[in-house]
Amino acid sequence: MRRTRRAGRWLALLALPLALAFSAPGLAVPPDDAVPPTRSSSGEQNGVGLMRIVVADKSGIDRLNELGVDLAEYVKPVDNGIEVHAILSPEESQALRDQGFDVQDAISDQSDYAENVAERSATMRALAAVAASTDTLTVLRSEWFSSLDNQLFLNIEVKSSAGTDSTTVLTASWDSGPGTEIGSGGTATMSRFTDAGQYMYHRFSNPVAIDAAPSKATITSSKGGSVTVDVAKWLGSPRKVTGEHPYVSDFVDHYMDPTEITARFTGLAAEFPKLTQLIDMPYQTNGYRRQAQAQFGTASASIVYVSSKAYGSAGGNDLTVSLVNPGAANAPLTVGVAGTNVTVSLATNGAGTITTTAAQVVAAVNGNADAAKLLTASTYRGNAGAGVVAAAGVTRLTDNLKAPASVSRDPFQMKVLRIGKHRDGSKVGVFLYCQEHAREWVTPLVCVESAERLLRNYAKDPNTRKIVDDLDIFILPVVNPDGAHYSMYDYNMQRRNMTNYCPASSADPANRNAWGVDINRNFSVGSVFDGYNGASATSCTSDTYAGPSELSEPEARNEVWLVDTFPNIKLSMNTHSYGGYFMWPPGAYKTAGREVLPRVDQGTEAYFWTSSDYILSRVQEYRGTAIWPGRTGPVTDVLYSAAGNSADEHWYNRGIIGWDFEVGADIYNPTTKRFTAVGFQPPFAEGHEEAMEFANGNIAILEVARAYATDKIQPTSTVQIVKQEPGATTFTFSTSEPANVYYTTDGSRPTYDSPKLALAGMREGNQTITVNGSTTVNWFSIDIAGNVESNYKPDGNGKNYNKQKITVQ
Ligand SMILES: [Zn+2]
After folding, report:
1. Centre of ligand 1 from the C-alpha of residue 650, in Å
2. Most buried pick, 398, 409, 480, 485, via CB within 10 A?
3. 598: CA distance to ligand 1 center in Å?
4. Residue 24: what pLDDT?
């Protein structure tokens, strides 16, 4: 077939990408007099594909061009010629074959195209459906609470099915008490909460201050969804302990350093020998010490700094270095050592001018055997050191540590105070530990106050007596003593320990506040070494530096040693500051896809929320502080990912409940109507209050632990029908106390291998189960303490499980 130029133009026109025809159809409309030879002008792409053609040489390409074949911008030499690609209909392909062209297979054809179009339109339809249809709103939490000076606040969290669309706006309105109109209490727009690029839910950035306790709230979405819910009271449930007793408290009157705190614990152990045991932890810390250093010069290229081999306290502080101008022409560079004094005599040229560079000083000092025994010289931050140095008089090296001599410069002996009437491993153990992060000065006071209250109230307070008699309590007041000393005496914002893993290129004196390992990132579960988010494995000066490897630090190994040595430990509390949080695992995720460590199961999550209410109500009792619902929950949900933290270590490796406090809730100013953060080291008057209220929290944790330890009550459970419609019935289970439910729907006996009732989603209620035909459900429940409903033996042969027939209309 010979084509005219016009026909060729046709071929090319019709081969325009369909998208163009979609977006500007007019462009694809042919002139009236033109008749397309092989394709309809309807815009359909009957059989058109991107075809492979092999021509013998360039002249073959030219011929195709002359024919008006629509060639792609693609030319590839192949064995028997040149491969080109053309957009052709089957008829056009055949016509070219008839002319002797080697038209081969399709690179992509209509079916690919059809698939792409189908996929695209499906996606477009889904997006349009999301945009057009009413979204479904799932209320995660709706609570009011009172905090501080009886100011009332509202907290609402709602998940929209259209929440991934950033234009979805949710608005909450609430009443001002039973029987009042929705909206009479107020209205507020919610903010869209995303994490690691993923939509979580909508919430208020801060709890909203309100004048009256609401009973109902309505949340409406810009996408049309609407839901009305009851607003419950958060916290403030009445204390279960009854009876008058002379309870004594308030045992801290100033911020304390680790040396003072250890002395206090040693004294308590001596005073209460029948109730306590002071345990030396096996790994001593590196100590409140570091190398002595001095730095010469100011311009980067001519700076030299020296670090003592010995710690400052072990002789490093006695060293001196001088850079001497010999005062003569053509002097050589020499290094002399006399006792602890190193003298570098600098080289000069014929005019008597100093010529020695920083790099030359470094090489000369490090190359002198006597000097190298005392110290190491380095250029500045990896600089080549080509700058000429200046002379400098006798300069003493110093570790620059300012703590009084009463603070030892030796490795620190960490001590844990074990409190309990029966310390033989027969009682449930609870591990309370504080100050993993050095700058969190309030936290050790929480541990000290907790220990004092337990021991000094034991004789007269029946509640304390029950706790101490029935539990085995381990209190570690300072996990990071070296860093804590440093924070108190040298650099108050120190978070990490003092161990320096930095290479010479970042170990100069100006970086001394930036060394150290973040103890709460040094553990072995969900660590940065495992690929989790929220720590640095590579930057020794990062504030979340995880150390050279998991459990590299003695402080972290001591915690692990304790929980391994005392396997009766079942609960732990890791106290940090600040912000006012109560949290539990999971505490880390991988950034890609926000892959979270396994979530706790439905029964455990329910237990945590029930415990939260009790523990946080005790915190609130002291001065009214409410820990917000939005700051209660798994670490990953309410704070951020913290790779390699200790609570995850305890939970995932040993099944120990790993709770975290952040003491220091934001303070609300009723005049400005703003919340203010308290910081790491508030004035002691505020720090004292935080220590008192969270010591309340620690005692409450012990009460919760004792309830767990002595729980012999079996849970009961029932089937709850959620929805019945023709052909489908949806149900879930409810339990008398937090408990897990194992169930079958195939008539078989339920065991621990049977399906386990899960949560519907993050911060959501129980999952629901839908059956499409009448079904017998068999199930049992088991509480956190291991009590099984009706004393059923899931591993046995008994039939005393629950049974219920679910009917379907
Ligand atoms: Zn912390």
Report:
1. 17
2. 480
3. 23
4. 33
- Closest to 449 measured CA to CA, from 296, 663, 172, 176: 663
pLDDT at 149: 72
d(CA 471, CA 425): 9
Show the DSSP H helices in 185-286 as ranges: 258-271
CB 401 within 8 A of CB 487: no
Q: Which residues contact 236 (CB under 8 A, 6 or more apart)?
A: 145, 146, 617, 620
Distance from residue 164's CA to the centre of ligand 1 (Å): 32
Ligand 1 center from residue 119 Cα (angstroms): 48
Letter for the amino acid at 279? I
Q: Smallest Cα–Cα separation from 618: which of 72, 145, 235?
A: 235
Distance 492 CA to ligand 1 centre (A): 14
Q: Where are the beta strands (DSSP E) in 59-150?
A: 71-78, 81-88, 102-108, 137-147
How far apart are the CA of 494 and the centre of ligand 1, in A?
A: 11
Q: Please give the C-alpha separations between residue 674 and each of 149, 273, 621, 670, 677, in angstroms, as whole numbers.
A: 14, 49, 23, 7, 10
Q: What is the pLDDT of residue 10?
A: 35
Q: Which residue has tokens 């307070």? A: 461
Which segments of 631-775 does DSSP mark as H helices, in order?
Answer: 635-638, 646-654, 684-709
Q: What stretches of 568-685 adopt beta strand conformation (E)?
A: 569-579, 581-584, 589-590, 595-596, 632-634, 657-665, 667-669, 674-676
- Check residue 414 and give its pLDDT: 98
Nearest partner of 307 among 371, 258, 248, 377, judged by Cα = 377
- Secondary structure letter of residue 521 according to DSSP: G
Q: Which amino acid is at 113?
A: Y
CA of 743 to the centre of ligand 1 (A): 41
Kindly give the distance from the C-alpha atom of residue 660 to the centroid of ligand 1, in angstroms, as a whole number: 10
Measured in angstroms, how far is the CA atom of residue 438 from the centroid of ligand 1?
A: 8
* Assigned token pair, 690: 């935080």
Q: How far is the CA of 661 from the centre of ligand 1 (A)?
A: 9
Residues in contact with 178: Cβ distance below 8 Å, sequence separation at least 6, in sequence order: 215
Do the beta carbons of residue 355 and residue 335 sit within 8 Å? Answer: no
Q: What is the token pair recorded at 631? A: 């700051």
Between the CA atoms of 37, 40, 46 and 52, what dihedral angle is there, to the nearest 10 degrees? 30
Distance from residue 582's CA to the centre of ligand 1 (Å):
13
Point out which residues pair with 589 in neighbouring strands.
596
> What length is written for the chain?
809
Q: Please write the tens of the pLDDT for every residue from 695-733.
A: 999 999 999 999 999 999 999 999 999 999 999 999 999
Tell me the C-alpha to C-alpha distance, in Å, between residue 47 and each of 30, 50, 87, 135, 763: 20, 10, 10, 41, 52
Q: How many angstroms separate the alpha carbon of residue 365 from the centre of ligand 1? A: 42
pLDDT for position 198: 86
Q: How far is the CA of 483 from the centre of ligand 1 (A)?
A: 12
- The helix/strand/coil state of 28 is helix
What is the rounded end-to-end Cα distance, in angstroms, of the chain? 69
Strands (E), 499-568: none
Distance (Å, rounded) from C-alpha 646 to C-alpha 660?
10
Chain centre distance of CA 318: 45
Q: Which residues of the chain have pLDDT under 70?
A: 1-48, 66, 75, 77, 107-117, 121, 123-124, 127-132, 237-245
